[in-house]
Structure formats: structure tokens, C-alpha cells
Amino acid sequence: MVNFGQRDDAPPAAAGGAPLGATVGQGGPADPSAPLLQLRGVGKRFGPVHALIDVDLDVPAGQVTALVGDNGAGKTTLIKCVAGIWEPSGGAILWNGRPVQIRSPKDASALGIATVYQDLALCDNLDIVQNMMLGHERLSLGLLDEISMEKTAKQTLSDLAVTTVRSVRQTVGSLSGGQRQSVAVAKAVMLEARLVIMDEPTAALGVSQTELVLSLISTLASRGHAVIVISHNLNDIFRVADRIAVLYLGRLVAQGAASEFDRQSVVDIMTTGASARLGNGNGGEPAIARGTTGLED
To answer: 79 lies in which domain range?
Structure first.
């Protein structure tokens, strides 16, 4: 069932000055039946600008959740809150049903959250092994354990069915766009990420490289990882997404199984905040978004 927006009677996310959640590693036992990541009433303000408003989002393990919205809808702001770049102004973040507070990228990494940004953050002058192990190098008798690191890199790429790389010792600068995406994702998986966030993973890629990346996304989900994909390419979204969540002017106005949407309904919601095609009960009128939209995607 597609859910539209928030309940009219929902209490303010930060009413009474409630804390965002417990610090990482606290907050009671995990709930194995809960989605891996849950956002409840999450908001983000930059002075008078409301970039996110009362966002509720579920991200189950083993599924691909597509986060879509027009430019300025709040997509980048949302993933930066999850990745620990910015701390939400209100609301709660739950990990396996347990409240947590993500104050830094280190906190996010400790939980098992990895973000693959559009620029990939790879070093072109280093080879694949060096990039994948960067910051996590292994030592043996005070020296780099090159054999162990190379075996780990090869095994991780093999597990993800990445077969187009000629050698793990070739420099990343010599790789295609799809291969570079594969290396960035493999690094996240090697570091035991349970949630992989991918920002525009197929942007500026050719047909064959796009196929490689989409296949990689499907492989991640089949291995039990939760995946959030941000993309403007609806063809790619409907190829790999199990769930779709739509942001409009800082609000998450619809989310549900991908099978319950079609391309036109997603475009309608992205541009007006509603879609008569989905029978959301408001005659297709645009949803009213309180506050001001953010400055980022």
C-alpha cells in the first residue's frame, strides 16, 4: 500500500524538546522484525530554511529503496543526515528498531552505513587493492600485508560478481565509470556495511556500464544488504527498486512497493506532491508543504 505524507494529527517531531535518540550502541535491544533503518519525524533546518519536514521512512534489509524527487526536494539533505554529515534538527533514527543518534560519519560507519557519493571518493593514482584497503591496511611484522589485502579485495569483488576488472593491481584511474562504482561499493561491503547508500550511481554512464552497476545493486540486495538508491533515471529505478519513496519540498509524500507505482504517478508526485493515478484521496491536488524547501537535492 502506498502511504501518502504524514497524519494530520501526528505530533511535532521534536515536541517537548525530546532528544533525537540514544547514542550509538545504546537504546535497548534490537528488534529483528523491524526494518533495518527507520526515520520517524526527522526534520532538518538551516536557520529559517526547512530542508526536511517530518520525514518517516522505512528501509528494509535485503531490498532496494529508491529515493526520488525533483531538484531541491531534500534527497541529499536526507542521506547526509543518515550518513552523519549533518545531525537532524528533530525526530528519531532507529536502527533495527533501536533508537540511535548519528552525529558523525564515524557513528554511521560503526552502525554499518556506507555512502557511495557521485564523486566516489577514490584515488586515481592508487590501484584497486590500495583503494579498497585505504585507511584499513593490514600489517604483518610491521610491514603491509600485501598478499592478505589482495586476497580480500579479489574475494569481495568475486562475491559481488564483478568480473570485468582485468587485475586488482591496475590503477583506478584506468577503470571505466561502472568499474569505479564497483570498486567503491566493494569497499563498502568489505567493511561490513549493512546499508549502502548510492547517490546517482548511473549518472554519465554508458549502456554497458549502467547494466554493470544495476546488476551490482541487485546483487547487494540479494546478499541481504539494504540499499538506498538516489536517481533521476526512472527507467533504472523501476529496473532495480523494491520500494519507492518520493520527496516533495522537504516532505516524504509517498512511499510503498515499486509495483504500486508507475512512471507517470512518480512524476506526478515529484512535481505536484500527489497523483490522482494512485487514488490518494485528494483528487490529485498538490500536497501542501509547510516551510521553505532546502537548497540541496
So the answer is: 1-110+241-297
